[in-house]
Amino acid sequence: MFLVDYWLEQLPQKPTLNLESEYYKTSVLVGFAKIENVWGVILEKRGKNIRQGGEISLPGGIFEADSDISGKDTAIRETIEELGIDRDFIEYLGELDSVIAPFGALMEVHSAIIHIEKLEKLNLSLNEVERVIFLPIKTLLNINFEQYEVLVKVHPEIVDKNGVSKVIFPAKELGIPDRYQSPWGNWKQKIYLFKYDGEVIWGLTARVLKDVQKKLKAIESKSII
């Protein structure tokens, strides 16, 4: 057998991400619901005492290897916990495009129908969710997303909580060119944003909803939404 034959055996049947295990993995759920005969997406305002408290997000959370087989499991499990509903209330539809955040997170995006007729039917986990926000699809279709940019750079050193600088990538000692001894990179990350129900919805949540809007516009003429 030649080298090429051995090599072909090592190729993945479905390529994913290089060194995917090094990414911080999360999953969210785009949950469609029909409330009082209006189709919309369920959003959450995160509890004040948790990570990114007070921000608007989709139901979801961190992949837990002990309980989750896949990102789909994560999205569904977290939705059940946060919204306080049974698994039977969730009709899974499929996976959307994933998002890679500049801070090293890989976020899978899944979609489902959440079979509730009133938001009052939800039994929110108040430690995690302050309140839910129902975003009607017709409203989402008409949103003009504001667009901004941030500059993303690589820093070879960090400053700890005591203000002490620590080199974490010793470029000089490693014999790497001088330009990498100080922050480098000039990549601009787009930030999408819109306001609804007295809240600012931005970041990864807005990025996902912009993609959802694009997909919904493709079927808007079907008169089903």
Keywords:
3-stranded antiparallel sheet, 8-stranded mixed sheet, 4 helices, alpha+beta, Nucleoside Triphosphate Pyrophosphohydrolase, 225 residues
Please characterize this protein's 3D structure.
With 225 residues, the chain is of the alpha+beta class. It has one domain (23-222): Nucleoside Triphosphate Pyrophosphohydrolase, CATH 3.90.79. It is 19% helix and 38% strand. It is built from four helices and 13 strands. Strands 1, 2, 3, 4, 5, 6, 7 and 8 form an eight-stranded mixed beta sheet that branches. The chain has a three-stranded antiparallel beta sheet with strand order 9-12-13. It has a two-stranded antiparallel ribbon with strand order 10-11. β10 and β11 (165-167) form a beta hairpin. The protein starts with a helix and ends in a 6-residue tail after the last helix.
